[in-house]
Specification:
The chain is globular and about 45 Å long. The chain has a single domain, classed as Jelly Rolls (Sandwich), CATH 2.60.120. With about 150 residues, it is mainly beta. It has one helix at about 5-10; strands spanning about 15-20, 20-25, 30, 35-45, 50-55, 60-65, 65-70, 70-75, 80-90, 95-105, 105-110, 115-120, 125-130, 140-150. The termini are far apart. It is built from 1 helix and 14 strands, in the order H-E-E-E-E-E-E-E-E-E-E-E-E-E-E. The longest helix is centred in the N-terminal third of the chain and has 7 residues, at about 5-10. The chain has a 7-stranded antiparallel sheet, with no helix packed on it. Strands 3, 5, 8, 10 and 11 form a 5-stranded antiparallel sheet that branches. The protein has a two-stranded antiparallel sheet with strand order 1-2.
Length: about 150
């Protein structure tokens, strides 16, 4: 039996590992600045359980629906198809993004076969997520994340 994605990621640098020649990430980090907008557009999601994309700014907050938060979760069962968050923080330098899912009401990340593949072109990132349940499947959540620069 092969190791889970979580085991492979931990045995590497904790952030990424090569799986079948493709890089899989436990989280993604992109440069951002105060006032940048982060557009999260859901492309597809699993019908079996709620999926989420979680986001956190290193030295700042995110503004979503007029509310400031340190970590935002864009859930498939509660968020609109496209959600827009704004980086708030003069010292903000980067945003971390990872996938999560809910199973029996428990919010989980970074276990089992959880991981993400990403294809980037400039500030547009197509992210395909595998939740940690069962075999790795990078179509549990697919989102397009666009960073819209304030300057």
């Amino acid at each position: 039996m092969s190791d889970s994605l979580a085991v492979r990621l931990r045995s590497g640098d904790g952030r990424r590992a090569k799986v079948d020649g493709v890089t899989v990430y436990s989280y993604l980090r992109f440069a951002v600045s105060d006032g940048d907008r982060i557009e999260v557009q859901r492309v597809s999601s699993s019908p079996h359980r709620a999926q989420a994309l979680k986001l956190a700014v290193d030295r700042g907050d995110l503004r979503a629906n007029g509310v400031l938060t340190t970590t935002a979760a864009v859930w498939t069962h509660t968020a609109p198809e496209t959600a827009v968050l704004t980086v708030a923080g003069k010292r903000a330098k980067s945003i971390d993004i990872w996938n999560a899912w809910s199973l029996a009401g428990v919010d989980s990340s970074w276990i089992g076969n959880a991981g993400m593949r990403v294809q980037s072109r400039s500030d547009v990132h197509m992210i395909s997520c595998s939740d940690g349940v069962g075999p790795a499947s990078f179509d549990d959540l697919r989102v397009r994340v666009t960073i819209i620069r304030s300057t």
